[in-house]
Amino acid sequence: MATVWQSCLKTIQGELPAQQFNTWLRPLQSEESQSQLVLLAPNIFVVDWVKDKYLSKLRDVCQMHARNQDYQVEIKVGSIDAVINTPVASAVTQETKDNTNLTTLRAHKPNLNSDFKFKTFVEGKANQLALAAAKQVSENPGQAYNPFFIYGGVGLGKTHLMHAVGNKILKDNKDAKVLYLHSERFVADMVKALQTNTIERFKKYYRSLDALLIDDIQFFAGKTVSQEEFFHTFNALLESNQQIILTCDRYPKDVDGLEDRLKSRFGWGLTQAIDPPELEMRVAILMSKAHKMGVELADEVAFFIAKRIRSNVRELEGALKRVIANSNFTGKAITMDFVREALKDLIAAQDKRINIQNIQKTVSEY
Asked: Cα separation of 250 and 223, whole Å?
């Protein structure tokens, strides 16, 4: 039986961008009782970030799964492993803890999602070139297409593809030092290193990686100090033929606030776009996701959802999860009428968005 925290994570995962979920929530540890959930984070920066951005939502979702409106959810710095493994008599200084944060703990945690593999990535015209290049990179890390830069809109599969490369590298070489993280986490680690006077350890660790995978590089924009450090890390990794993979929501030269020298270096390898999926690909994605969730989706239902939800894969998957959840809650079969009712607000919002886009396009032509 799933714990409250496991159930909460499953719900939240469908509502957040993958990079946010994997960076801030998935790594948290938990201690549960009948009346309380205590989340354990590696440092105070993560505690403050989760409190500010996610704690209110987490509390609501946990109370729903616990079926208790008084269920308490808190977050603090801590680790279950640390509690188990640290002798009572040992005295560890704060400096030692800070030094460990960026080396020992991170060195053994690539932060890769094991579900994101090439075999679970649905191929179509919109992503076939990016997929082919990613496979080449995974088979020849540091040699083929370095750096490998993937760009495209939200929810199109950039993060999935990045994780697939990392997982393949580790499968072929279990000793490889692979690290996936969101660009905000790189900034947070650097700030922490500056605060604790451990910047040399920070540099040494990041430059020792065999493969560095950074998501949403556009968040470096305007962060001068972070860009300076990443510039030197980038050069060090490239000179040692260590693989760099980056994603962005737009073409790198279109990112305002990003230094020209970084934009130039991003183009040294291969830059590949992922486009919004066409209808057939959206249907294939729905069928694949539904099958994985133990549901056989009728063709007409899959085509209906795919035709009405056209923005990105994440919204498509969110719509599917809503339909399946409603079916499980009510015990009703997933028919066309059931789907129309379950998704009526999403469909209305999608139609409104499309109408506005059509109006803007028409006006711009005159």
From this structure: 18
Cβ pair 32, 5 in contact under 8 A? yes
Kindly report the CATH number assigned to the domain that includes residue 296.
1.10.8.60
Domain that includes residue 302, residue range: 279-348
CA atoms lying within 13 Å on the CB side of residue 286: 31
Which residue in this structure is represented by tokens 């205590």? 38
Rounded to an integer, what distance in angstroms lies between the CA atom of residue 171 and that of residue 270? 23
pTM attached to this predicted model: 0.62
Cα gap 36→186, rounded to integer Å: 32
Query: Apex CA 73: angle with CA 70 and CA 75, to 5°?
Result: 160
Residues 205 and 118 in one domain: yes
Find residue 146's DSSP bridge partners. Answer: none
Contacts of 320 (CB under 8 A, 6+ apart): 286, 289, 290, 293, 297, 305
Amino acid, res. 336 = M
Q: Please count the structural domains in the chain.
A: 3
pLDDT in tens, 122-147: 888 889 999 999 999 999 999 879 99
Instruction: Render pLDDT for 205-231 as a digit per residue (tens, 0 to 9).
Output: 999 999 999 999 999 998 888 899 999
What is the SS3 assignment for 69? coil
Specify the CATH number for the domain of residue 36.
Answer: 3.30.300.180
Q: Are residues 127 and 164 in the same domain?
A: yes
Residues 260 and 312 in one domain: no
In a domain, 101, yes or no: no
Last residue of some domain: 61, 89, 117? 89
Residue pair 113/182 in contact (Cβ under 8 Å)? The answer is: no
Distance between CA atoms of residues 226 and 54, nearest Å: 25
Listed in order, strand segments (DSSP E) in 56-166 are 72-77, 148-151
Secondary-structure percent of the chain, ordered helix, strand, coil, rounded to 5: 55, 10, 30
